[in-house]
Design goal:
Pfam families: Laminin_N (PF00055). By secondary structure, the protein is mainly β. The chain contains no helices and 2 strands. The chain has a two-stranded antiparallel sheet with strand order 1-2.
């Protein structure tokens, strides 16, 4: 994955999801991670389209 670094540069790092809680692990569990913005889910490269199904097991109200 790559993120913007400074105004004109990109910083790229390899994802490694073999261990679920490692710094570079971007498993689907990280969608609702309590670790804050430094954790996220990322799909496998070159897979398009990607579907994600959530079973929330109750009704939720989403607002702006």
């Amino acid at each position: 994955y790559c993120t913007q670094y400074g105004e004109w540069q990109m910083k790229c790092c390899k994802c490694d999801s073999r261990l679920p809680h490692s710094y570079n692990s971007h498993r689907v569990e990280n969608v609702v991670s309590s670790s804050g913005p430094m954790r996220w889910w990322q799909s496998q490269n070159d897979v398009n389209p990607v579907s994600l199904q959530l079973d929330l097991d109750r009704r939720f109200q989403l607002q702006d």
